[in-house]
Amino acid sequence: MHPPASAVRAARIEHLDALRGLALFGIALVNVGVFASPWWGLGVPDPAFSAPLDRIVAALVATLFEMKFYLLFSFLFGYSFSLQQAAAARAGQAFAPRMGRRLLGLWLIGALHAALLFHGDILTTYALMGALLLGLSRAGETAQLRIAHGLIVATALAWAALGVLAWLQPAPAADAAAQAQAVLRGFTGAPAGVLAARADALTSAWPILLALQAPCALAMFLYGLAAGRRTLAARLDDYRPLLRRLRRVGFAVGLPAALALGTIEAWPVSEPVQLWVLALSLLTAPLLSLAYAALALPWFAGGGARIADRLAPAGRMALSNYLLQSTAMALLFTGYGLGWMGRVSPAATLAIVLALFAAQLWLSRAWLRRFAYGPVEWLLRAATIGAWPRMGKAAY
Predict the structure, then answer these.
(1) Residue in 87, 306, 131, 142 with CA at minimum distance from that of residue 221
(2) CA 115/CA 313 separation, integer angstroms
(3) Around 275, how many Cα atoms within 13 Å sit in the side-chain half-sphere?
(4) Is the Cβ–Cβ distance between 148 and 140 less than 8 Å?
(5) I need a labelling partner for 122 at 20 to 30 A (CA). Which of 29, 77, 262, 282 fits?
(6) Quick check: 226 and 139 in contact, CB under 8 A?
(7) Buried (b) or exposed (e) across 131-160, using 16+ Cβ within 10 A?
(8) Per-residue pLDDT tens for 225-252?
(9) pTM, entire model
């Protein structure tokens, strides 16, 4: 006998949670570099870890994960937006006020996260872009997709133009070693010094994050919104031709650019070339992220069902897990705790992330056996509905 359609739909939605859990792992692999190395973002690898294994690990992380998994998470944000909008319509409730409260709550959580734990926070960007998504959600699908395409192309062209300017008017070479030492002193000193260093980092990081991540995140929101309204995850069989095209085009176009990004991460080049490779990655990373989703979702529905079952609880409480990752990394690498920044190789940081994520998989499943929401998800839902929701017992 075949399972009822409702059970199939529920399983396919769980696959979205599994994909969210997978995205959470990829985000941790990228973010740990910011915590672990004072050389991160300086365009030069840490000379203390220049062995072939260190370079290869750094190149692989940049190739497979950097600039891809926050986009995958963004796609899922847009998909979830469509589910919440549909649920509000079925209940006959006004959607915009609820979503506005949710986005405000998300922004406040993100602002605290950025100030206290991680200056590379993505939540505030999601909240701001979510407000734009709320306005764009009334447009037709064709217009939404054109806007998404335009945002990606415009962002890539802007960074390519910066590369041209850097080529025409080269800037004086910065003393990367001195900058790295200043970062190391700030983030491994007393907790008050860590807060001050993070405030300084925020001043320079936020404009770059907004210019680099925000437009592409909004584009992926719109792609996810279209996929959610078509209930793609619940109708994978109907969309197999589309999924095949996404895999074929996404990997064919996205992987070469990703390899270029990984190569310059481990073996640096001039600033103009770095900017041009970044622009190429901005143009192609959304396709590669969609190819990841097009590969993972059918696999979760088939041979990867057991892996999906392990990942889904972490994805259901992804916000709590994202903040927990930052907390753990801050305790390990900054003056809040052990102060390991600059002392751990790329291979060792990879092992740390694997151990941390394995613990999160176990903790998430254990938590959801007793509660319906993750702790931060519960707070965000309270802000959304304007009341304290029951924690209840989850269906796991």
Answers:
(1) 131
(2) 28
(3) 17
(4) no
(5) 262
(6) no
(7) eebbebbeeeeeebbebbeebbeebbeebb
(8) 999 999 999 899 999 999 999 999 999 9
(9) 0.92
